[in-house]
Amino acid sequence: MSRAGFIWILFMGFVLALSGCSDESEPPAKDSGDADRSYTEQREPCADFSPTRNLYFGALHVHTSLSFDAWSWDVYSEPEDAYRFAKGEPIPLPPLDENGQGTRTVQLEHPLDFTAVTDHAEFFAEVEACVTPGSEAYDSSLCTLYREGTDAGMIAISSPLMMTNPVRSQEICGPDGVDCPALAESVLGRTRQLHQKARSSDVRRRSGSHPRRQEAVQAGREGAFDGVSRRE
Predict the structure, then answer these.
(1) Tens digit of each residue's pLDDT (9 = 90 or more) over 217-232
(2) Cα gap 74→128, rounded to integer Å
(3) Angle 187-132-177 (CA atoms, 0-180°, nearest 5)?
(4) Which of 29, 34, 27, 36 has its CA nearest to residue 51?
């Protein structure tokens, strides 16, 4: 081998040795999932974030007495009751006694990690007018029928808005009734406040505490959780 060739090989080896060195004081690269996240609003960072995801149990479809079909099932629970139930508190259920109070009590064995109250908003005004004593429409024949809790009342109050050419009930929302757009906005504003309060007042940080979560995590470690749905 020529002297020039030997020097070239020695030089390249020196360069490769330098390229393999790194500054151990440099922080590790940030997880890609953290950089890719985006938010629609400014909120406190999640204290329980995990790039490999966490497992939670909850309910995404909950109705209360604000929904037009609730009264036909004797459901008088308010959104506040739904949130209390999700947190593990007992609430009453039908059948009702002579005072309109539930005669059964139901309570979750374990509180939920999350819940979503998803009432039918299209009839907020009609329901509020019909169940609020003193409203302009409270004593109307349609509201009286609705409060009886029959399917006929539910259909009568909802059908005008479900037609090909939907209209509001004139008996409830007409000139002699209530201002339905304003009343619906009022109920919507109240529910927004309740949802915001429920979301911010009791943020659960119970990672690993739920028995079903512990079982699922253990199953994942054993390779049995692959491909299994993460829904409740």
Answers:
(1) 454 444 443 433 333 3
(2) 16
(3) 85
(4) 34
Output phi, psi for 118, to 5 deg.
-125, 65
Q: Which of these, 131, 112, 116, lies nearest to 212 by C-alpha position?
A: 112
Whether the CB-CB separation of 160 and 169 falls below 8 Å is answered with: yes
Tokens standing for residue 204: 């659960």
Instruction: Provide the residue ranges of all domains of the chain, joining segments of one domain with +.
Output: 58-200
For residue 223, what are the contacts with CB-CB under 8 A and spacing of at least 6?
none
List pLDDT tens digits, range 153-179.
999 988 888 889 999 999 999 999 999
Q: How far does CA 26 lie from the centroid of its chain? A: 41
Interatomic CA distance for residues 60 and 158, integer angstroms: 24
- Segment 67-116, tens digit of pLDDT: 999 988 999 999 999 999 999 999 999 998 988 889 999 999 999 999 99
Q: Is 170 within 8 Å of 156 (Cβ atoms)?
A: no
Token pair listed for 85: 């139930």
Is residue 79 within 8 A of residue 117, CB to CB? The reply is yes
